[in-house]
Amino acid sequence: VTAERRITGALGHLPVLDHIPAAQIEAFRQQVELIDRTNVSEIASLRDEVAALAARGAEPVADAACWAAAEPVESGKIVRLPPGGGGAPIEYDTTGFWVFTLDRDANQIVAHHHLPDNTPAHEIRARTAEGILQSIVLHGLVSQMDHAGYLGIELAKAEAALRFGLRYEQDQHLRREAV
Q: pTM for the complete prediction?
């Protein structure tokens, strides 16, 4: 761990331990021994190794009191918010509206964009919700955060329905009915 509390060599999205006191990080490092068995898939071999390691009888860390005594590092207060909306209507987006369907033969989500006067304007096809939503945002075809959130929810449902063979109907819960 660096002085900035970044985990050395970590590839994750945010490999930072800024809310954990240095004493706890060090105590953890003393308690853990990394044994890389990434390419070992034989259950018997792994079971034998775990048994051998357990038989070593590791001693407790002498400074384990740091876990109970240490105060968390303050870096700001998290404000807990209630879920919102409760079915509150989404304001009409001046860029138009979207209709989502599935093309199961092509294994794609189909997004049809209509202008505010109901004129069909754009079609986007992709296998993932992410691909469609990125195209919508890239081309400026959504202008309101609540509408963008709604589109993300509907596209995630459409992708799940496509992947798992569920019935998809926009603005409805997913169903297990045969498709």
A: 0.58
